[in-house]
Design brief:
This protein is an alpha/beta fold. The chain has 2 domains: about 150 residues, Medium-chain alcohol dehydrogenases, catalytic domain (Quinone Oxidoreductase, Chain A, domain 1, Alpha-Beta Complex), CATH 3.90.180; about 150 residues, NAD(P)-binding Rossmann-like Domain (Rossmann fold, 3-Layer(aba) Sandwich). Helices cover about 30% and strands about 25% of the residues. It has 10 helices and 15 strands. Strands 3, 4, 5, 6, 7, 14 and 15 form a 7-stranded mixed beta sheet that branches. β12, α8 and β13 form a beta-alpha-beta unit. The longest helix has 16 residues. The protein starts with a strand and ends with a strand. Keywords: NADP. Pfam families: ADH_N, ADH_zinc_N. This is NADPH:quinone reductase.
């Protein structure tokens, strides 16, 4: 099979396309013949050395997310057969080989059925963005699962509503009944956030975003989904209601977060920090089930009309795909594997 690998950390040029033996699933594992693989910021950050002090394996195939067909079933696996359409999450977590390859072997608990009618493009776009968004939206004081009506009556502020996680959060929150306000940096990104389901957008580069959000949510927002807390925390504190939640999943814009304690604890604010790799199997499973339900309902989509422009790269151009994500491509970058 063809696989993309790297043997040292560094820029996207360290990625190499090689031929490798097709892996064999062990007990409790499935082999998936991949059609698409999603490329996420976590992939290029790990490749660049931002995660590893030293490579944990002599050779790494990057990629956490993908979609394709079950090709082989390991001992002890029930409920799956060759030909089943599936999506995969966290394929490379704790393992040397991820989804930037024609085949991947993964534990059965990281594989989920792709609902009928859902494309492989959509399946490969779930994983990291959608599971992260789900955890953010269920980190408040009253909602642990997402379904239609679960967030009815709540207002959710999503920072970076045109980003991958931001878009998933907008779509999932809208499906669950919330009123969604999304921050964006341009008219073009505002159009994408609205296509995803945002009721209102706020351009944080102009005017007074605190006043604009407050005008849209006079009593304060119930929950904030934040990608850049070092820059946004003052705004978040001002616009979040008493006993509201601020969910943080990235460190865009700075690695240090400081806050005035009295102004923060006087509102009884809840801060939820999110990293999928330490989330726990129970929360991952619950998120995947809800995400699949949203896909089956047509509530999670990709493409320009869903606010998620797709950028396809053949496996031979995996380095270009990584670079596109690193350079801030708007939408979803996918590797075409079949």
């Amino acid at each position: 099979m063809r696989a993309v690998v790297y043997t040292e950390t560094g820029p996207s040029s360290v990625l190499t396309l090689v031929e490798r033996d097709t892996p064999v699933p062990g007990p409790g594992e499935l082999r998936v013949r991949l059609m698409r693989a999603g490329v996420n910021p976590t992939d290029h950050k790990q490749r660049a050395g931002g995660t590893y002090a030293a490579l944990p394996y002599p050779e790494i195939t990057p990629g956490q997310d993908g979609a394709g067909e079950v090709d082989a079933v390991g001992d002890g696996v029930e409920g799956y057969a060759a030909g089943d359409r599936v999506w995969v999450m966290l394929a490379q977590h704790g393992r040397p080989f991820g989804t930037a390859a024609e085949y991947v072997v993964v534990p059965v608990d990281r594989v989920f059925r792709l609902p009928e009618g859902a494309s492989y493009d959509l399946g490969a776009s779930l994983g990291v963005p959608a599971i992260t968004a789900h955890r953010a939206l269920t980190s408040g004081e009253s909602v642990s699962r997402l379904a239609p009506g679960a967030l009815t009556g709540q207002t959710v502020l999503v920072h970076g509503g045109a980003g991958a996680v931001g878009n998933a959060a907008v779509q999932l929150a809208s499906w669950a009944g919330a009123t969604v306000v999304a921050t964006v940096s341009s008219d073009e990104k505002a159009a994408l956030a609205v296509a995803a389901g945002a009721a209102q957008t706020v351009n944080y580069t102009v005017g007074d975003p605190v006043a604009e959000v407050r005008a849209l949510a006079p009593d304060g927002v119930d929950l904030v989904v934040d990608v850049a807390p070092a820059q946004n925390n003052d705004l978040d504190r001002e616009v979040t209601r008493v006993r509201g939640t601020i969910a943080i999943y990235a460190n865009n814009g700075g690695d240090e977060l400081t806050m005035p304690l009295r102004a923060t604890f006087s509102k009884n604010l809840r801060y939820q920090f999110i990293l999928l790799y330490t989330l726990g199997e129970d929360l991952l499973r619950a998120a995947a089930e809800d995400v699949s339900a949203a896909v089956a309902a047509g509530a999670l989509r990709v493409g320009e009309d869903a606010g998620v422009p797709l950028h396809h790269f053949p496996i031979e151009r995996a380095a270009d795909a990584h670079q596109a994500v690193e350079d801030g491509a708007v939408g979803k970058v996918l590797l075409d594997l079949a």
